[in-house]
Amino acid sequence: MNTLILKNISYGIKVKTKKKKVYKELFSNVSLEVKSGEMLAIIGTSGSGKTSLLNIIGGRVASGTISGQVLYNEKKRDPSSYIKQVAYVEQDDVLFPELTVRENMVYSAKLNLSNKKYNENEIMDIVDKYIESMRLGRVRKSLIGSAVKRGVSGGERKRTAVAAKLIKDPKIVLLDEPTTGLDSKTAESVINTIQKFTKSKNVITISTIHQPSATTFKLFDKVLVLAPGGVVYFGSVSKCLNYFSSLGFKCPEYENPTDYFIKLITANTDSEQQQKTDLERIKMLKEHWLQLSEDYIKEISQNRKESSSVNETEEQTVEEDESLCEQNHVSNVEDSHKPWFRKVFEAGKLYCGSIMSEDEENMVECGEPGNTWGKELHILTDRAWLRQRRDRSLIYSYLFISIAAMFGLGFTFFNPGENLEKIQNTTGLIFLITLYLLFLVALPLLLILDAEKKLMKRERSFKLYRVSTFLFALTFAILPILLLTNFIMLTGVYFLAKFQPVFTKYLIYMLIYMSTIICSFSFAVAAISVFPTFQLASVISPLILSVFGIFGGNLINPKNIPPALSWIRFISYFYYSYTAAIKNEFGGMKFNCSNITGQVCYTTGEQVIDAYGDDIMHILV
Ligand SMILES: Nc1ncnc2c1ncn2[C@@H]1O[C@H](COP(=O)(O)OP(=O)(O)O)[C@@H](O)[C@H]1O
Ligand SMILES: [Mg+2]
């Protein structure tokens, strides 16, 4: 039997006003107790802090100030073992629309269940068992779908999301508004399925819920009614109506009880007078409950002392517990004061969020996820490839722009000309190819990488995998598409624009540009990682790439760049790529100067290279 107890939990956040940040307490003195096999509903007005409370219980709060205690099995939670026992189903679930119900479950199972403990067949058996128990058998091979592409129904999608989280065999299940957006019958069926799971697996289930029907509401054992600022009721669902009746608030016969409770804790802003009476009522309800809950907390502590005196062998633990009861631990998990570079470096670590440990900054590393590094990479690469195969928009769009660029550049430079014209045209073409491989490879990637970053952050908040494996899997899924589509473009341009027909030159040309593509990919990954928002990344990246282009060697001769700025070209991969391609193409080239009189004529390609600057010669040497 597991128990989860919250004692006098308060939570506050910093809210930005016009001038400064002010501290705002979302709720205070929240106390509750749930045992294995029980379902607790948290209801309350929007913005009262239901999700925040659920995050505190799940150890997922990243900012704000928390005070009070969360005790699991009467002890302070141990971050690494606690997190493993919690399944958290978020309001907006992450399922892959392009994968089927079963595929979504399989990847979730593989990431959640360590390959050190389960083999492939065991994992598949577990998945199939969960599909049956969540009544998803009929749609196991159907795509999840999205707004654009129709897939399974809303209820089935929600049940899949819940099943994908439950597969880790948790002891505590937290659900954030699992029925929002579903009709009342579907909502009831979702809660019914969760209730069966709670009873059969004997887990603690806590769910925030928005306007449940009376039938759905009755499926819960306990309810916590959260008004703005604090609790007005916590206890069994069956006694809830009587409690409010005893205070003079009797639920009308045909009214849905939860609708009625919400009305009781909402201040009507239509008229000032009405608002005043409503606020007074809410205040009275909170104060009344607070008085009762003080007795209730004493009761919990009392019970625990009594039970410990019966069981003398647990004396040591009890002593430890008592100290926990007495101290009122205050934790501050505000991390906005940290400099940005610390946040960037720390993003790579796995944190348990605020779990109220005594760690100085209250962010505790949770240790590594369950799978081995290699297995994790295999699962993530496999998943990334399957997603690319199902949704080919990335492949097709890169193929399209590559072929368009191939014909565009190839035919524009179809006639390279002679001597000076040839030098001008070839340098221009090499400049354009390099420019293309910077801008048109890196910039369209930003949007895709931003979505991947969000996915990674979310999945890593559940401690599913390491950053390194995700990054490698992402590279394996996207980079080959870039290399392959641009290989076609580069080959086409090479022959259409009549570059030197020497195989080694073609090979070096290809290697130079393949490296450029890898640099552009890395640049996009770095930009999305470093900049906090996509908007910022998409504004600053072209700016940086433009600077790379300006100092790249074609627009201004490196010899003429002022010394104070000349270093910039050395951090620009455009410069290396462009000058290497120039050197490759002009190397060994011969010009016929016999017909040219009265103007400068280069007889060899080396002279052309020389004219571009001293350091060009040394790049490939
Ligand atoms: N870490 C945070 N930083 C800033 N504001 C927050 C934070 N957590 C919650 N809030 C704000 O607190 C309020 C309550 O949030 P939430 O817990 O999501 O309420 P509910 O789930 O009941 O609608 C919201 O206005 C939200 O914007
Ligand atoms: Mg919420």
Helical percent range? 40-55%
User: Into which percentage range does the β-strand content fall?
Assistant: 5-15%
**Would you identify the CATH architecture of the largest domain?**
3-Layer(aba) Sandwich
Unreliable runs, pLDDT <50, ≥5 residues?
307-336, 343-367, 617-621
Number of strands: 13
Class per helix and strand makeup: alpha/beta
Molecular structure report:
It contains 22 helices and 13 strands. The chain has 621 residues and is of the alpha/beta class. The chain folds into two domains: 363 residues, P-loop containing nucleotide triphosphate hydrolases (Rossmann fold), CATH 3.40.50.300; 247 residues, no CATH class. The strands form two sheets. Strands 1, 2, 3, 4, 5, 6, 7, 8, 9, 10 and 11 form an eleven-stranded mixed β-sheet that branches. A two-stranded antiparallel sheet has the order 12-13. The C terminus is likely disordered. It binds adenosine-5'-diphosphate (ADP) and magnesium ion.
Keywords:
two-stranded antiparallel ribbon, Rossmann fold, ATP hydrolysis activity, elongated, 2 domains, ABCG_transporters, 13 strands, binds magnesium ion, 11-stranded mixed beta sheet, 621 residues, ATP binding, transmembrane, 22 helices, alpha/beta, binds adenosine-5'-diphosphate, disordered C terminus, 55% helix
